Amino acid sequence: MTSPGSPWRTVRSVYQPIVDLRDRSLVAVEALARGGPGTADSAGDLFAAARASGTVDELDAACLRAALLGLGEVSGEVTVFVNIEPATLSTLGTRRLAELAELTGDGVHVVLEVTERDLLERPAELLRGVRRARDRGWRVALDDVGAEQRGLALVPFLRPDVIKLDLALVRGHTTLRTAAVLNAVRAEAERSGAVLVAEGIETEQHLERALAMGAQLGQGWMFGRPGALDVRGMTALRLPRPPPARARGPVEAGSAFDLLSAGSAPQRATEPLIASMTRQLESQALLLDEQTVVLATFQTPEAMTPRTRRRYESLAAVSALTAVTGPGMPDHPAPGVVGTALPPGDPLTGEWVVAVVGPHFAAALAARDVAPAGSGPGARRLDHVLTYDRPRVLEVAGLLLDHLRPPSAAPARPPAAGEPVAGTGTGADGPAEQAADRAAVQEAIGVPSADLPQLLLRAIATASSGIVIADARLPDLPLVYANTAFLQMTGYAEDEVLGRNCRFLQGPDTDAGQVGPMQRRMLAGRDVHTVLVNYRRDGSPFWNDLRISPVLDAAGEITHYIGSQLDVTDRVDRERRATYLAHHDALTALPNRAHVLEHLDLELRRARRSGASVAAVMLDLDGFKAVNDRLGHAAGDEALTWAARRLRSAVRAGDLVGRLGGDEFLVVLAGLPPTGGAGSGSGSADETVRRVQQHLHRALAAPLELSGAPVRLSASSGAALFPRDADDPAALIARADAAMYRDKTAS
């Protein structure tokens, strides 16, 4: 409840419509907080002030109450979306939810919008809060999806009825990050039936992008601004059937093994095999994206070896959430890893469990001892179940999430080299594999064992490629070796390089979309090959052909990484130049015929969807042959280059000027208003085309001097409009060419 003296007691709500994008009918409203007298008005300012004063929970409760009170006089069926912070929902008990529900009528359907930000702070409490809200009959929406990619990790567990796409997705540029978010959202919507809502729609372009992303509903200024509640004409919002409540049985008993074995017969295996299967799942998780959740339960504290600890530190670095439970588990068993100690008697304490959940991957393994470890190797036996069935994996992962407690504020200190580590691991590492007989191999290739280390060192030191070695056993993978070629290529001195992570070579034009996958492949023990922009010590960029390989010890653990680097700037520049020339005219630098035709075809396809018009304007320079004959071809080339610059300066932003060949140019004008159908003789599209033609002619009328002689250039032009004059690129250009010929013969 909001106290009488609270600064948030005067908070009020305004309501913004949410519409069906197919017919723009009103299906719901979203309640948005606004300040009262003496407080900030916008929700952003309100919550900024609340964070500064430590009263976010109180403000959130006041906003929720104000939103529901504003619906008190509504009659009929109404759906309202109400924002709520994850932390607030985590603490809403059954009694408080019942009190809030009494503020609305029977016909009011509440959808709680949980922001994607901070979802991972208290996941167990949040999921319990969601279940309590659903028990009350309320629905759940995940808000601002895409604002923080890691927040998508809990979507499979929350099972939201509605997923709201952040306005940055609707208005921003398409990137690999955008695609990763959309692919994850579409996959979840396909599995669960969740309804997609696009926020921030203000223009037709925003609407087109929202529909392309799969949104069924939308909101934004295009459909109505926030204001007084108006539900006239609202139709019922059809949401998917709520996910079923968790059934009683093995899950309620708290046993992951019983849950999985209820659907699959357990298999018996030795400890080394279970350890290898576990590490394979962990390696698979390293190759997934940052929306992944890795959860594990360990049976004994002694199982956490330094190698296991390093594996889980690596998992935490690339996943949204990595958490482990077990007897005596510290809050931070490894940097970035969330730990929870299981109480005595918890069924999970006797189980070996690992679960990996990503948007497009799910796997779980649960094992239980059937024979204790004996004195001989491999004496320990465990029954186990491995499944890739997503619903069953989610049940196991949900069970482990339910056990998590919020960690303390400070992470545990990383141990010094060789220091024993308290905590647990997924299970004991398998026995070390026998090392190969290196001496025999070396003799077979004719290099004595005593000479090989020095030979390899000299070979690496004198190699023409830049070679570096990083230590995988130390935090942040510091470089411990750099050869002369690397130092010469980058301009750094050896003492400026050693001890640093190689990210110091990155800069503003280094593609972050390449760096993340590289890191995941490295941590998974995979080779890396990529070409990316790096920077020398003097700040100059270069294209680096980079290859990285892991170096393993006798037990198969990664101890180092070796990187080979080659400056391929000249090669990339040549490739870019070739690509540029494939689409541009070498003389004028304008798009060439192939590029212009491809662009025109694209604009026609867009216009068919939007109902807009597209114009093709043909231009042919008048008397250009005389310039060539009188002043020579060099002067003619100069005249063409000058004409190209003048034409390009005369068109609107977004229009395209290209050279078809010789002295012919084509201008593509897109996004024009509809022409009104066949036979329409005038209209805004025609007026725009005429104005552009006038600008083009005036641009060419400027004086030009070639070879010391004044020259006057002019052009004939003709235009055709899609869809009125033609329906495909070739026909449209032919109509424009015919109009241009009529203009030339008439002058």
From TrEMBL:
InterPro entries: Biofilm_reg_signaling, DICT_dom, EAL_dom, EAL_sf, GGDEF_dom, Nucleotide_cyclase, PAC, PAS
Stored PANTHER family: BIOFILM ARCHITECTURE MAINTENANCE PROTEIN MBAA, DIGUANYLATE CYCLASE DGCP
Name of this protein: PAS domain S-box-containing protein/diguanylate cyclase (GGDEF) domain-containing protein
Domain GGDEF intervals: 612-747
Domain PAC: 526-580
Sequence ranges assigned to domain EAL in this UniProt record: 1-240
Segments forming domain PAS: 452-501
Start and end residues of each stretch annotated as Disordered: 407-435
